[in-house]
Amino acid sequence: MNLEFGLIDYAIIGLYFVIVFAIGFYFSRKERSSTEYFLAGRHVGWFAVGASLFASNISTEHFIGLSGSGYSSGLAAGNFEWSASVCLLILGWVFVPFYLKSGVFTMPEFLERRYSPASRWYLSSVSIIAYILTKISVHLFAVGILLKQVMGWDLYTSSILLVVATGIYTIAGGMAAVIYTELIQTFILLIGAIALTWIGLDKLGGWDELVRTVPDGHLSMFKPMTDPDFPWTGVIIAPYIVGIWYWCTDQSIVQRVLAAKNIDHAKSGTVFAGFLKVLPVFILILPGLICYGLQQKGLLMPGQKISPNDVYPVMVKYLLPTGFRGLVVASLLAALMASLAAVFNSASTLMTLDVYQKFNPDASEKRLVNFGRISTVVLVAVSLLWVPLVNVLSDQLYVYLQSVQGYISPPIACVFLVGLLWPRANAKGAAVVLWTGFVLGLLRFVLEVIHKNSPFSNPFIKTMVEMNFMHFAIILFVISILLLIVISLATERPAQEKLDGMTFEYAGNVDLTEDYKIESRSRRRQNIIASVILGVMLVVLWGIFF
User: Fold this and answer.
1) Are the C-beta atoms of 112 and 124 separated by less than 8 Å?
2) Residue 397's pLDDT is what?
3) Is the CB of residue 178 less than 8 Å from the CB of residue 27?
4) Rounded CA gap, 32 and 42, in Å?
5) Residue 510 burial (C-beta neighbours within 10 Å; 0-12, 13-18, 19+)
6) Per-residue pLDDT band at 1 (split at 50, 70, 90)
7) CA–CA separation, 453 vs 414, rounded Å?
8) Nearby residues of 4 by Cβ (< 8 Å), 6 or more positions away
């Protein structure tokens, strides 16, 4: 049974596309230099930075994955959302000053300045491959589920339409178009998600009825150590390891703060995004619990089993009236297109500045921008080639892809974080950590896939592959830190030029340019106050849902 969309639903969706394309083509007439195309001229204000950080992170797999997790496991998955708020504060207060002071365009470029060209090539290659093989496929897999259930579209129709539409405004307008469409998309996806949560909770009978109908422990953020999905020993540490990699070192995220007007706007943007990341627990995970309660009371598909992947589409299909359906579908499209645009723009930035420019150091600004547009076209084409493969992805493989970040993030987070904190960390240590971490993470992933189909009998291998991915991430992070320390101490000290302005101890050796100096003491004070308020809010929320 598919939804019967009314004229107002189609009008809302049509208006959404008109706004997105209008923004894209407006900026297509303004972009000229590589700085303007890839970093929006470094003139983006804090509000747009924060909204863009949030929108580029939230995609359709969040609607599916978080609501499904809420339905089956409760609020525990919310630790990844609230820990993201902490990681955004770390991005703003720890990493941003060094990124802006160095004047880099990309994260691999930063690693080269701190360590070596080898580190740059590693991160560039891993990032581009990961964007293509995991992020794009996961986005398309999730939107295929949603739009098939909600609108009756087949995977090919929905994927091709949205990939091409996103590619057009990303190619045309560059980073500025991406950021300002994400600003609009943030409001659309928030309004849609809030509307569904409100209507569902009202139909259930309110918060007290929700507490009464969901299983014990579903409203707790912390599960027993033996929980297979969210053991408390994992959620109190692993989300911050993954979070430092994703929020503080991943190109698709950090590129937004690199586009900020100055350090104050960059910090304000990260704090604003931190407040926004509090919301998904209530507007994406909570609907899963509401769905469970409605089904228990016989108010939603009574007598039928709902797959976790179908929770959000089912609620949209059966709970929303005409008008709201179009609004929520527009929010789903906004979430997908914002994340796809982030992938397209960031991957093309890496391909242009970390690959093409390295081989063509004298390339003109026009050639760089043109290559950026061409590389985005290539990414769009690759995405379209993925569509038939996405159609055969199983739910298991979707889960595997989501866990990949737990395997690739620890060594990258280690070399960035330790590199800032400890001047003795050198290029040889970073290279050993990156490649060792890559091999161990890949080994865990491959063995896990094999084990699912043909279980191992060897106790050591069995323990390794059955270990919760969060526990594995913690162990890999500790191994990475120890390796970096041991190898660095056993080899020569890094050159002073690798330390000046790149570590806390030598931060004062390089001055910020006039463009990036602190705007005012009052703005800095506001950022500190807002950060403290966010921190207190998170502590209170964790206390309430302990």
Assistant:
1) no
2) 47
3) no
4) 13
5) middle
6) very low
7) 33
8) none
Q: What is the DSSP letter of 493?
A: P
Q: Tokens 């949209």 appear where?
A: 316
Instruction: Please give the structure tokens belonging to residue 129.
Output: 């491959």
Q: For the whole model, what pTM was predicted?
A: 0.89
Per-residue confidence (pLDDT) for residue 396, from 0 to 100? 47
CB 123 within 8 A of CB 413: no
Q: What is the pLDDT of residues 62-114, one digit of tens each?
A: 888 889 889 988 898 889 899 999 999 999 999 998 888 888 889 999 999 99
Measured distance CA(453)–CA(447) in Å, rounded: 10
Cα–Cα distance for residue pair 125/120, rounded to 1 Å: 9
Sorted by sequence, the CB contacts under 8 Å of residue 311 that are 6+ apart come out as 64, 67, 68, 70, 71, 287, 288, 291
pLDDT at residue 519 in the model: 60
Looking at CATH, the fold of the domain delimited by 7-26+44-393 is given as Sodium/glucose cotransporter (1.20.1730)
What is the DSSP annotation of 66-95? HHHHHHHH-GGGHHHHHHHHHHHHHIIIII
DSSP state of 216: T
Q: Which residues contact 462 (CB under 8 A, 6 or more apart)?
A: 451, 455, 456
CB burial class (10 A; 0-12, 13-18, 19+) of residue 429? buried
Closest CA to 115 of 414, 466, 509, 370: 414
At 109-158, the pLDDT tens digits run: 999 999 999 999 999 998 888 887 777 777 777 777 777 777 777 777 77
- How far from the centroid of its chain's Cα atoms is residue 436's Cα? 24
Confidence of residue 326 (pLDDT cuts 50, 70, 90): confident
Tell which phi-psi region holds residue 262, choosing left (phi > 0), alpha (psi between -120 and 50) or beta.
Answer: beta
Sequence ranges of the chain with CATH classification 1.20.1730.10: 7-26+44-393
How long, in residues, is the chain? Answer: 546
- Tell me how far apart the alpha carbons of residues 490 and 416 are, in angstroms, rounded to a whole number: 20
